Amino acid sequence: MSIGATGKPTLVVTSGLVPNASVLRLEGELDVYVLPLLREHLRRIWELPATPFMIVDLGEVGFCDSMGVNALVEAMQECEARGTRLLLGGVRGVMARVLSITGLRNAFEVYDDVDEALGLAMTS
What we know:
It holds the Pfam family STAS. GO terms for molecular function: anti-sigma factor antagonist activity. The protein is α/β, with parallel strands linked by helices. The chain has one domain (2-123): Transcription Regulator spoIIAA (2-Layer Sandwich), CATH 3.30.750.24. It is 40% helix and 33% strand. It has helices at residues 35-47, 66-82, 93-101, 114-123; strands at 2-3, 9-18, 21-30, 53-64, 85-89, 109-110. The protein has a 6-stranded mixed sheet, with helices on both faces. α1 (35-47) packs parallel to α2. The chain is globular and about 30 Å long.
């Protein structure tokens, strides 16, 4: 959990493994203040043996600034270097708008529902 300028938690990050995939769930605000927390979770994932898929669940992200978008691009680049497909699940609302406005929606494999991404990873 990261504490923002207001002294309140702004992001909760949880991670785990399912067959064929590492899963990172983000809940809250994805902004410059939480990047150290996000990068720490990603570092732990990168230390594990590569999985065919990495799923980032964005369904509970209520805000994302340019630095948050940059962190997702960095994760995509690391996944590509490892031979891992990055799937963004739960992309709706704020995150759908952010990816559309930035022109990145087509750069990522995007799923409205995280269960779709999980299903693809588990059946591949």
